[in-house]
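Lab notes, practical 5.
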Amino acid sequence: MHVNVGLKNDEDDAEAESATVLLVDDQPVIGLIVRKMLSSDAAIGFHECNDATAAIDTARACRPTVILQDLDMPGANGLDLVMAYRSIPELRNIPIIVLSSNDEPAMKKAAFAIGANDYLVKLPEPIELMARVRYHSRSYMALLQRDNAYRALHEGRTKLRQSNLELQRLTNSDGLTGLANRRYFNTYIEQAWATSQKDASVLSLLMIDVDYFKLFNDAFGHLAGDDALQRVAQAVQGAIVEPMSLAARFGGEEFAVILPCKGAKAACEMGERVRRVVEALGIPHPSVAGASVTVSIGVATMTASVATRSTDLIAAADARLYCAKYDGRNRVVGAA
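Output from the prediction step:
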């Protein structure tokens, strides 16, 4: 049987409890005596459980700051209950004061060994019981406050880290297409160039331009043009599968893809994949009947050295992009 007995009067309800005591004892008379002992402090909430098999559920329900635990109860061993409390996360740290008629040192040693915090022989003086309850409750509340502070600090740091990551993403992203912006492209290609020089590894670059985009904007308007750029950007991003690659909006209707450690052949194959994917979008283009939006792509591959710069790679890819447009557009031009 579970009995919940409040020691406070109605006028005291506004006062916060300084302790919540759960007495687990099968003798109702002990409950009456303990309740009376604690009644001098209106800030102590009192709960009683006379059925050992209900002790765990009662403790979970009332969340005490101190458990007064009898050792000799029908249906359960008090020491087993102490161990059970300690095995449950939400009850694990609640102070347990054994309240027992057994005064043998061996029993006290056993109780402390399995996790009891204190041991009182029935029945202690009221002043002693009150002092133990207050002491252990204060210790437990301080532990909870510390854990809550750590939790709040951790959550705050996590939110700050997430905010910083989101800010970094927004800082590095193009607002229209979601690809890397020109500023991040410049940073990334310098890093890739430095790695290429250090490792003597190849570095490839695709320069991609939407064909006849001015004509598209003039015919359909800038909103339609923005939508087309977004769809092309998604196609470019989807076609790039290398984990170290970077797709970026270079400016206007021009995109770029950095391909670390990819040689000329692999880069041209990647460019052809991008070209086909964009063409497959089937975005209508006003140039001629049945035409769709296409891209021209220039591909350049270099190994960085002290005598070259990343701008040389960009210039080479840009020159091949010009060749692709001059040769009729909707094509990929790599190394001659």
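Observations recorded by the TA: The first strand starts at residue 2 and ends at 5. Residues 1-16 have pLDDT under 50 and may be disordered.
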